[in-house]
Specification:
The chain is an alpha/beta fold and 349 residues long. It is 32% helix and 22% strand. The protein has 12 helices and 13 strands. It has a 5-stranded mixed β-sheet with strand order 1-7-6-4-5, with helices on both faces. A hairpin with a 3-residue loop joins strand 12 and strand 13. The chain binds acetyl coenzyme *A (ACO).
Amino acid sequence: MPQARIAGIGMYVPEQVVSNQDLTNYMDTSDEWIQERTGIRERRYAHRTQETTTTMGVQAARQAIERAGTTAEEIDFIIFATLSPDYYFPGCGVLLQRAMNMREIGALDIRNQCSGFIYALSVGDQFIRSGMYRNILIVGSEKHSFGLDFSTRGRNISVIFGDGAGAVVLQPAPEDGSGILSTHLHSDGGSAELLAMYNPGTHANHWADQNYASFDEAEIGNMFMSHQMIDEAQNFPYMDGQSVFKKAVVKFPEVIMEALQKNNLSPTDIGVLIPHQANLRISQFVQQKLQLRDDQVYNNIQQYGNTTAASVPIALCEAWEKGMIRQGDLVCLAAFGSGFTWGSALVRW
Ligand code: ACO
């Protein structure tokens, strides 16, 4: 069977624009610090009560489905990537299936954080290649704004993240060499705790036993979310930013080169590189390392911040809407994030 192609693409970002200056109302930070370290000028925050990760995903999905020239009824599998689901369980895939009145098709949730969309794309591609499905909807969506520590304590993380959603529809590619040429997935759990949200979680009296030796019996029954966990901000994401940076600038170029070499191509063949929008400094480092021109790399973290699983499809959608991606172009998608997990995909548009 042929590989998959991206038949339609869509995105959605909430209306509310939050500037770096706006964040200074809540925490001790500055526009200068944020721009210098991350490149971010502003980000979008979803409506507190009227928008969720799923509802934003639905908006992006509608656009992708329409652009693919198909309908929600024709979709035969859903893959939903997010780290900020509406519920702890069930996942967003089924909520999207319900919201879009889809048939009783399969719905799979992917929990690979920043590289979630690349993982989802790879899984979708395999289903198309095997002939199991012909019309797969992939969504990456995040509502980070509901779960960040907006006090000065959380500033090294909270200033980075934004909300939004992106989606694609995968269909079998025509027999002309177009479509997803290859995908490459990796992980290294050795550093799992360097970029993580620890609680609520079942690790409390296992992996982190030494940290909880002081728990008294009364707290044991409340391990799911104790007062101590909240006091220690363990219900918010934790990041060792410098360690993440050091690993990301090695793994991004490595996994991009892996994809190029697999297809006997080189960086000069890349039409557009869409890196996960982790941090503008990371993207610039990768660009420099691969000796890519400015017009070969698309970044929009300046406007949206880091939208994790949504960042690659949002950037891909914008680059496509701006006419930067034309038929026959080689598009490289790459991501690195929590886990650590990372991956790349090479697409002949
Ligand atoms: N505003 C002002 N000051 C801040 C802020 C803030 N938002 N955040 C931290 N600081 C202060 C710290 O308190 C510290 O002050 P001190 O020296 O008085 O103690 C100082 O700035 C330096 O803090 P660091 O945490 O060491 O900051 P660093 O220079 O490492 O920059 C950053 C932080 C931007 C996160 C950097 O580590 C980085 O780029 N890491 C890459 C990780 C990344 O991009 N993650 C994105 C999400 S994960 C992903 O998508 C892969």
